[in-house]
Design brief:
The chain is α/β, with parallel strands linked by helices and 251 residues long. It is built from 6 helices and 15 strands.
Length: 251
């Protein structure tokens, strides 16, 4: 890893991103299954990189375990090789070897402090049925503060996190405006308009949208999302699947 506090990342697909941070290699919401039908959801494309090309991982951030577009069969196998896996308290009861934490709880992993933060997988009245979801904030001396939203759809929740962590300079946001018929018309993840609103909570932050690829229930997949945010894309870093790129750099 570079010694200049650059956060480098590789988008695997969907919500799965591998990035470097403070001496750690971190993965978010591992999904590596091939295209197909999973729990009523349709996966259109497989991962941009196969598991053997991932290399060693130090930390996994699992926003939730109970939806196949955020943790799948191959993803669970990946977790078994990661020394520290953080997720919801409910998820830890279901996924062996994981650490379950409630929102606003912090844990030290290497040189980094990881704080679990709230997420709402849909609006009030829907999120209760989609199950518990969390996001994460990473901090380390000399490194940018990083926010990974998980499947949060609500700007008000992000505003609560911004109040607690105003110095976030890299926000990794699950977007795509996921919609599922039996959960009503509201998006279950951020849509483009809400991404722009969340970006406004941290005016100097780099915004990295993920979860805009590979699934049929994303009502704003990559091309649609990019078209809608084009007028406000100055701070967006949009990753090409399978290509490692710098996400942000300290001035």
């Amino acid at each position: 890893m570079a010694n200049d506090q650059t956060v480098n990342g590789t988008l695997i697909g969907g919500p799965t991103l591998v990035f470097t941070y403070a001496g750690l290699r971190v993965i978010t919401d591992p999904t590596f299954d091939p295209p197909g039908e999973y729990g009523g959801l349709t996966k259109l494309r497989g991962p941009a990189l196969p598991v053997p090309r991932l290399g060693a991982l130090d930390l996994a951030l699992v926003s939730h375990d109970h939806h196949p577009d955020n943790l799948d069969g191959e993803g669970r196998a990946v977790l078994s090789q990661v020394p520290v896996v953080l997720t919801t308290s409910a998820g830890a009861a279901r996924v062996p070897g994981t650490i379950g934490l409630e929102p606003w709880t912090s844990i030290t992993v290497g040189a980094a402090t990881v704080t679990v933060v709230p997420a709402s997988h849909g609006p009030e009245g829907v999120a209760e049925d989609t199950g518990p979801v969390v996001g994460f904030v990473l901090e380390a001396d000399g490194w940018p503060t990083v926010y990974f939203s998980g499947d949060n759809s609500e700007v008000s929740v992000a505003a609560e996190i911004a109040a607690a962590f105003p110095d976030v300079s890299l926000a990794i946001l699950c977007a795509g405006a996921a919609r599922v018929a039996n959960r009503g018309p509201a998006p279950l993840t951020l849509d483009a308009a809400r991404v722009i609103e969340v970006a406004g909570l941290w005016p100097a932050a780099t915004i990295v949208p993920i979860h805009i690829d590979d699934w049929a229930h994303f009502s704003e997949p990559r091309e649609t999302f990019l078209d809608k945010v084009s007028a406000a894309s100055g701070r967006l870093t949009v990753l090409e699947p399978g290509v490692t790129a710098p996400l942000t750099r300290l001035a």
